[in-house]
Amino acid sequence: MESFRQELKALIPSRFFERQAEIIQRIDNHPEVQRLRKEYPDRTADLTSPRHYRDISQHLSYCDACNACPGLNACQNEQKGHRSVEEPNPTQLDELVFRLRKCNLLKAYEKQQGIGQRIKSHYIPSHILDATFDDIEPDPQRLAAITAAVKFCSTFVPGETTEGLYLYGPMGVGKSRIAGAIAQELAKCDVDVLMVYVPDFLLEVKDAIGSKTETVENKLDSLRTASVLILDDIGAETLTVWTRDEVIGPILQRRMERLPIIYTSNLTINELRHHLANVKDAKEMDRKQHEKKAERIIERIEPFVKILPVGGRNRRRD
């Protein structure tokens, strides 16, 4: 028996027990362990026992990495973007268990990604889509428009809000950024928003005519059904009879009194009326007919929006 004990002792590395005692001492002295002992006095008596060593060591490793957090991209934890949290063990009343949970940085990142998924766009620059109300200077010439935009977001109720906004003014004064901020704010509330740059979108639809019919229908259906539609720079497009009567008209008709639209334009309502009557392929003999069709579209816009001027300096040239 003595010989066996000697052989077993020889297999144990030198200072093994001393090193174990030092490790346990370091764990005992760790601020996180001291916090746990203070908060859970009845569940931490066995915290540094061999059977809990792996769990508490991993917990402390995560805590140390989180305390020196270098940011989400450079996260040092084995499971990036996660922190270790303690919970009372529901089956062992004298123990704690440790779980990995998403940290606030990962939650914020995923939330932002979700916002991006809820804002669909066609040909809208990222600096417009990423705009927020905090980024927009509330100067006097556009304060009324910004206030109305904020109110639209704060009072928006899916399925109930039907009145939109018509923001008009010179180029470069920030109409599109206000619309982009609306999209951001609504997306944070899980509202699906579609923002379309009208001139390019109409060209895309026209180009899709030669392809399968359902391709055009899919493009148009997304505009008909989005909870909030933003038509950016309406009036800047080159209109044809077809794009006016078969694209814009039916989209507005489908949404009228049901789903709100936010418009931005360089044109007043009266100027937009004139633009809609003067389509590219209009025939002089059909002038009155085109004016009636233009008026029909205006009747699908004007009664269902709050019309607001946006003024100020041209910020693109600053």
Shape: elongated
| Helix/strand class | alpha/beta
Our measurement of the CA-to-CA distance between the termini, rounded to an integer number of angstroms, reads 91 Å
Number of β-strand runs: 8
CATH architecture of the largest domain: 3-Layer(aba) Sandwich
Tell me the fraction of residues in β-strands, as a range. 5-15%
Helix count, DSSP H or I runs of 4 or more residues:
13
Low-confidence stretches: none
How many domain modules? 2
Can you give a write-up of this model?
The chain is α/β, with parallel strands linked by helices and 318 residues long. The protein folds into 2 domains: 15-102, no CATH class; 121-317, Rossmann fold. The chain is 48% helix and 14% strand. The protein has helices at residues 2-11, 16-29, 31-39, 53-67, 104-118, 126-129, 143-155, 175-188, 198-207, 213-225, 241-255, 269-277, 287-298; strands at residues 82-88, 96-102, 119-122, 164-168, 193-197, 228-232, 261-265, 305-309. Strands 3-5-6-7-4-8 form a 6-stranded parallel sheet, sandwiched between helices. α10 (213-225) packs across α11, α11 (241-255) packs parallel to α13 (287-298) and α12 crosses α13 (287-298). The longest helix is centred in the N-terminal third of the chain and has 15 residues, at 53-67. It starts with a helix and ends in a 9-residue tail after the last strand. 26% of the residues are buried. The mean pLDDT is 87. InterPro entries: AAA+_ATPase, IstB_ATP-bd, P-loop_NTPase. It holds the Pfam family IstB_IS21.
